[in-house]
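Weekly modeling sync, notes
Attendees: S.R. (lead), two postdocs, one rotation student

Agenda item 3: backlog of single-chain predictions. S.R. asked that every request posted to the team notebook include the full sequence so nobody has to chase files. The rotation student volunteered to paste the first one in as an example of the format we agreed on. Action items at the bottom.

Example entry:
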Amino acid sequence: MDSDRYAEIDAAVAYIHAHLFEPIELGALASHVSYSKYHFARIFKERTGLPPLYYISALRLERSKELLLKTNLTIRDIGLEIGQQSVGTFSTRFIERVGMSPARFRQSQEEAGASLQSLSSLQDWQERLISVDPAMRVEGTIHTELPFTGFILIGLFPRPIPEGVPLYGTLVRTRSFAFTGVRPGTYYLMATSIAWGSGTMDMLLPQATLRTRSRTPVIVRPGVPTPPLEVTLHPPRLDDPPILISLPLLMERFMQRVASGASVPSL
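Predicted structure, as returned to the notebook:
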């Protein structure tokens, strides 16, 4: 879809960012851009990949990550700040979508730097692919809109947002990727980058990293090879969903797979 299609959605997204900690109802958002609720919800999902209220929830959770790292607010207060009345509910959703508890995320700053250092010193981390059924393989090439030196985290997710550990994922330094043993189903390809020399906050709060997301689902059918994909990483756009999964967690999981001698290191 062209980025200027339904440009009114940009106004709605800007409104969401400006009023993120306030109650936001679907009707108010639709009225802000002079659409009916039904029409607004349809074109919002078409543009962003997510229903409006799910998108708002994701942005609030992203903001909670920032509050955990940059303030001394208690976990309960941060949950209340983003509209979660129960610390248990907040913690459960955080774990599901970020991959670790709020407390562990707050303490993970030192681990992030160590993971990047370990990856930078790794000599051989390329996938050593074995012969597999091509119908169970998703592969492709990666391009970037801007010059980039580092590695790329890429994965197949069940929803069009990088939250939770990907169903299939890996790290690559080259401009090609392959997932093997992919079961038939519908997936969304998401990727982002980490440049060598990135700061800890750049990894824990990846708001400026190059990224990409599939506008259409990747469908794997039984016995049918999936056509190769071509994806382009670009600077953040207003309608991109936030990257909720902890990137250092994925880096750590990858290193564990490499250390175990896995033939295809994954996330």
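Discussion: group reviewed the output briefly. The longest strand covers residues 185-195.
Action items: rotation student to repeat for the remaining queue; S.R. to check formatting next week.
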